[in-house]
TrEMBL record:
One of its GO terms (molecular function) is transferase activity. Residues 65-163 form the Methyltransferase domain. Keywords: Transferase. Signal peptide: none annotated. This is Methyltransferase domain-containing protein. It comes from Gemmata massiliana. Transmembrane segments: none annotated.
Length: 248
């Protein structure tokens, strides 16, 4: 299977990155300033983490969690602090981002419960099945829909039967008036990141070129085709939609 381009905001919101290797995009300076840049939008991230914790709340006391596209580790740290006996595997292809993730987990005192894997799900060494997985703002960068389904299949193969997936992505029908209206609101929101008008226009262009915006029913179908039972949408924040599903 081909390599998957990760989210430009793996644990936060919805900017996009050009179709280059993450090591090219994420130098050390960018990675170290990443969380500060999007701090004003943290409420959206926090809502996703809060509800993810509720979805996972009945997992075993010593559950094992796979975080795909872990970024700087925000959802991992939230879950690790909420569930003090869980163990985590952070999968992230960007070395600077993974370094920030590792440092933040050390500062929060949870690094001893974490494994850090530089790379992609399909390069992760074999292990015992995970109880749950997160994939936050990752799959919408996979433009080939068959490859996107295979991405979810690669996660399902790592889960125990009945294991949970929480997946969040940018989603909407680009041909609809609803999308066009919501996109304008979204771009106003992105002003909070101090993006210039030029950057906002570049973002509009990138959404049309580099992001697989799909209607919600199509996203659900792709997740299900990767080996999951019917996904349930549990959150929408602007253009971000989140689903949970159990491995079939």
């Amino acid at each position: 299977m081909g390599r998957h381009i990760p989210s430009f905001m793996p644990s936060t919101l919805g900017f996009v990155m050009p179709p280059q290797e993450p090591s090219v995009i994420f130098d050390q300076k960018h990675a170290s300033e990443y969380d500060k840049r999007f701090a004003k939008l943290a409420a959206m991230r926090d809502a996703l983490h809060l509800l993810t914790g509720a979805v996972f709340a009945d997992l075993p006391t010593e559950a094992r969690i796979l975080c795909v596209g872990a970024g700087t580790g925000s959802e991992l740290i939230y879950l690790a602090q909420k569930f003090p006996q869980w163990r985590f595997t952070a999968v992230e292809p960007s070395v600077p981002m993974l370094d920030v993730c590792r440092r933040r987990t050390e500062e929060c005192g949870v690094a001893s419960r974490c494994v850090f894997h530089e790379g992609y799900v399909d390069s992760l060494p074999p292990s015992e099945p995970f109880d749950a997985a997160t994939s936050l703002l990752v799959s919408h960068f996979i433009l080939d829909l068959d490859v996107r389904a295979q991405f979810f299949r690669s996660i399902a193969e790592r889960l125990r039967p009945g294991g949970y997936l929480v997946s969040a992505d940018l989603a909407s029908d680009p041909a609809s008036a609803t999308y066009q209206s919501l996109l304008e609101v979204w771009l106003r929101l992105m002003r909070e990141t101090d993006a210039t008008p030029e950057k906002l226009e570049a973002l509009r262009t990138a959404y049309a070129r580099d992001v697989a915006f799909l209607p919600l029913d199509r996203v659900r179908a792709i997740i299900a085709s990767g080996g999951f039972a019917e996904p349930v949408q549990f959150l929408q924040t602007g253009l971000i939609h989140a689903w949970y599903a159990k491995r079939a």
